[in-house]
Write a structure and sequence with these properties.
The structure is a single chain. By secondary structure, the chain is mainly α. The chain has a domain of 90 residues. The chain contains 8 helices and no strands. The protein is elongated, with a radius of gyration of 27 Å.
């Protein structure tokens, strides 16, 4: 495929047929450089960061959806936890999915390393989770990350 910049401004009327003829004439005289196509190994190496970037975006999208569902239920988990998909956040999500909505019980699931004061955490957990919210949320959305994202989570972000 020829580079678009090498053909310059073509004088006269512009039509696809005229362009094709003009390009064929330039190509026949060897005046068009070929586009750069990297080696297959290079193409594969370039595909890896693109794939990882897309997986990270999808992961963030799922986390934001979970956070929005919690916010709609007036559970302000993100205000007291740095990562709602961490150990404490996942334990609380599991309990909510199982129908355990008592803030006192949910407070017992908070890991001791959480720095937020217990009274703030207790206040953040007082929400109104309806049965439809727990049944309409797919369990897979709240529980383990996809294997590909989990295995790549140790890689630095682009």
């Amino acid at each position: 495929m020829p580079l678009g910049l090498t053909r310059g401004n073509v004088p006269g009327r512009k039509t696809d047929v005229a362009d094709a003829t003009w390009l064929a004439d330039l190509l026949a005289h060897g005046l068009i450089r070929a586009s750069f196509v990297p080696e297959p190994a290079t193409q594969e190496m370039r595909a890896l960061p693109r794939t990882r970037k897309q997986l990270v975006r999808e992961q963030a999208s799922h986390i934001q959806r979970i956070q929005k569902t919690l916010e709609d239920a007036n559970i302000k988990l993100a205000s007291v936890l740095t990562n709602i998909m961490g150990v404490s956040g996942r334990a609380i999500l599991e309990a909510l999915i199982d129908g355990r909505t008592d803030p006192d019980y949910l407070l017992t699931l908070i890991d001791r390393r959480v720095k937020a004061p217990r009274d703030k955490v207790h206040a953040a957990l007082q929400g109104r989770v309806s049965a439809s919210a727990t049944s309409s949320s797919p369990r897979a959305m709240c529980v383990p990350r996809p294997a590909a994202v989990h295995s790549m989570s140790m890689l630095p972000l682009p």
